[in-house]
Amino acid sequence: MEVSEYIKVFAPATVANVCCGFDVLGFALEQPGDEVWVRRKDAPGITISAIRGISGLSQNPEENVVGVVAQKMLAELQVSFGLDMQLHKGMPVGSGLGSSAASSAAAAYAVNELLGKPFTTEELVPFAMEGERLASGSAHADNVAPSLLGGFVLVRSYDPLDVVPLGVPVELYCSVVHPQVELKTSLARSILKKDIPLQKGIRQWGNLAALMAGLLKADYALIGRSLHDEIFEPERSFLIPLFKQAKQAALDAGALGAGISGSGPSIFALSATEQVAFDVRTAIEQVYLSSGIDLHAYVSQVPEQGARVIQQPTLHA
Amino acid sequence: MEVSEYIKVFAPATVANVCCGFDVLGFALEQPGDEVWVRRKDAPGITISAIRGISGLSQNPEENVVGVVAQKMLAELQVSFGLDMQLHKGMPVGSGLGSSAASSAAAAYAVNELLGKPFTTEELVPFAMEGERLASGSAHADNVAPSLLGGFVLVRSYDPLDVVPLGVPVELYCSVVHPQVELKTSLARSILKKDIPLQKGIRQWGNLAALMAGLLKADYALIGRSLHDEIFEPERSFLIPLFKQAKQAALDAGALGAGISGSGPSIFALSATEQVAFDVRTAIEQVYLSSGIDLHAYVSQVPEQGARVIQQPTLHA
């Protein structure tokens, strides 16, 4: 292995539960995202020497996703030296934008780069999923996979894990608005019913299949007709203040479709052009600001690349 | 309208409920199929002067799908003259291969050709669906749409009707075996539960989304990994004698995947090459013949074209 001394990696936020693609489809954003800095140290074990951009996260490597992910990789590779890590959070937790996934993906990508790429980027997904297991109790892949791989990524199966990157088959722009309200993912998940009506299921997978066709055939109209969620959005959206108004404002401003990002409270909308995406962001912002709810908002092309090195000073054989 | 005197049309059998694509995905075969012959007559109204290849179907145009479809089209176009029709059945009813759909599609295509193509082929789908309404009580589109349009066709929505032809993105061969056992579609449908477990639903739409990606990206391995049905096949397959053995024989012979065609009892298997598709057909045949169950079997490329004119003698302005 050609091991570097020091590396900095950025991994982006992601939108999962893309309307009809509940639990199976996610996509990457350009921003926001997290940075993980990793330095090789001779002493074995992992230390987290700094966490910036957020307060309240543990620097105990067994209690922080970046430490857990790195430890899994070192154990798998039977590496004798240790790592010192820094986590620079560029996004809030609990936003529905895959915050723990961005940290986990950045950690996996950074450790892999530092160690001379013993794994392909796709092979990093299971390691990053261990961060998700720590953060949420469930090792889901629908945020870490697009954060690592970029573009739209499908999680076909967990047993065995089967992650399908679609690449970026069509130019799409995403507006994300994160209203500053608290929403527990566990609450959002707990209201899900264990059964769904067959007829709604059929409509949901018909929409998802059509969304895939729209993405892969670059058919914007079909993408727009397919971005629906008849099952989860009606159950969950009442947890998000002004969701219906915000979604309608997005559609009125020209978005192809809109929905809840992850488990919320962030709202995402997809548009065919960057200009429309900015208009959509403004329209959603106005819904919240006129009601006195503060927010963070982003516009991002759905990027070809996910996690990436942002600085790699020297190589060391 | 440039109206012909006489036209003959063939429309193919189809496979619907393609594993994970229950109720939304179907594809066309090259054979078997039905022919509809239509002749213009001056007297208004529709007559069915002959039905060949099958016994027991009504020649009353209000009780036969070809008459019902043609009548809807004449009424829509306010045509003053009448039509005499012949139906040549090239496939059995109750096979799970879209028999009534092939007749309905052939009728719609033939009448449209005779009348100088007032409708696009996609616009014929709702007319052909009226034949399905007569035959099964439900105007479903997942057989008539691929029979008319060829290739794989997705039915995204019924309200409004949204039919998405995928074209033929990948070269695929289908083996179909129709064991000579009776199975009522109504029975196969009646055992469906009204609710499905959420976790099975998620796996089902993950597989369907991946199947779409496999078809559109020509990824045979992904198609193979995605051709599963965890919801309906376990409930329905016990109605089909030797189904499990037949499916296993197909997979052992190299098929990418296999399942119940429509509501059965026919079994379909998809393969990457024609040679494998013949091997698969032989393997399934042996399962049934060794148990003394007679069958009909077909091998067919999934064709680019669906319904088509097979003879068009003279044009008449």
TrEMBL record, chains A, B:
InterPro entries: GHMP_kinase_C_dom, GHMP_kinase_C_sf, GHMP_kinase_N_dom, GHMP_knse_ATP-bd_CS, Homoserine_kinase, Ribosomal_Su5_D2-typ_SF, Ribsml_uS5_D2-typ_fold_subgr
NCBIfam families: PRK01212.1-4, thrB
Coiled coil: none
EC number: 2.7.1.39
The name this protein goes by in its record: Homoserine kinase
Keyword tags: Amino-acid biosynthesis, ATP-binding, Cytoplasm, Kinase, Nucleotide-binding, Threonine biosynthesis, Transferase
Pathway the protein takes part in: Amino-acid biosynthesis; L-threonine biosynthesis; L-threonine from L-aspartate: step 4/5
Species annotation: Pontibacter saemangeumensis
